[in-house]
Amino acid sequence: MTAILCPELVFTRRFSMAHRLISGCSERCATPHGHNEYVTVTLGTGRNNTHQRLDGHANMLLPFAEAKGRWHRFIDGRIDHAFQLSDSDPLLNWFKDHEPHRLGHIIVTPGDPTTEIMAALLMAKLNAFLHEQGDLLSLQTLELRETPTNAVRLAGDPLAYLPGHDPSAKSHWWNRADDTISDL
To answer: Is-contact 142 68, C-beta < 8 A?
Structure first.
């Protein structure tokens, strides 16, 4: 039996971020601080994993620039240098009252903005982008590397991983194929 090759496209992007964790799990991380992170995505063919033969001419499923362009613009333009805060962080009200012009640079997460929740939210956002592009490619895995020694890798449905309220609600920023990073 001949194995069917399932090509995967892998893209990595670096960004800088700041966050703080207020749930009490890490006193050290309760003070706002930052990381230089790397997000790596692995894309496969189509939502139904249908296998496509190369055409003998262009020999690509989708040009790399098209496959990664929307995602990289989002990471570079919206995620890079954003401040990640919990939806219950009192700093959100401070920004609303004192620096509302900065709200567009604050990522709001359900609970503490850990690497785990950010990986799931970014995975959901990329799924929304891929769906809007016609599901030519599907997200196989997303890895978010917080430090050289700490990373989270997710596969499957990120919505099943998200906490609390209905994470599949189309109204949440992570489910919309736009540049939003909060629902403020």
So the answer is: no
CA distances in angstroms from 87 to 33, 113, 123, 160, 179, listed in the order given: 18, 9, 19, 19, 18
Which helix H or strand E contains 107, and what residues bound it?
A: strand 106-109
Q: Residue 129 burial by CB count (10 A; 0-12/13-18/19+): exposed, middle or buried?
A: middle
CA nearest 183: which of 131, 110, 115, 118? 110
Per-residue model confidence as pLDDT tens digits over 68-112: 899 999 999 999 999 999 999 999 999 999 999 999 999 999 999
Pairing of strands 137-147, 106-109: unpaired
> What would the pLDDT profile of 91-102 be if each residue is shown by its tens digit?
999 999 999 999
* pTM of the shown model: 0.89
120 burial level (CB within 10 Å; 0-12, 13-18, 19+):
buried
User: What do you get for the CA distance between the two ends of the chain, in Å?
Assistant: 54
Chain segment 120-149, per-residue pLDDT in tens: 999 999 999 999 988 888 999 999 999 999
DSSP state at residue 119: H
